[in-house]
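ok trying again, last paste got cut off:
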Amino acid sequence: EIKKYFDVSVGRAYYLVLNANKLKEVVLINYYQSLANLDYRIKSGEIDKKLALEIWLLKVLGGEYDTKKV
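nice, full thing came through this time. structure:
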């Protein structure tokens, strides 16, 4: 199903599932909450959407959301 949905090879679908299973639920919840907050800040004009996304990606790559508790 994943192969069809993402239109990728079987090998790539395998690694997508493998990587997805490595993520902890608390990390995904933190990502979701931070994106919801970011969405609000963008829509309220508090921050530019391109800059906001770049900052969020840097925080994700830096592991900022990996250690926070919900």
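cool. The radius of gyration is 15 Å. The chain is about 70% helix and 0% strand.
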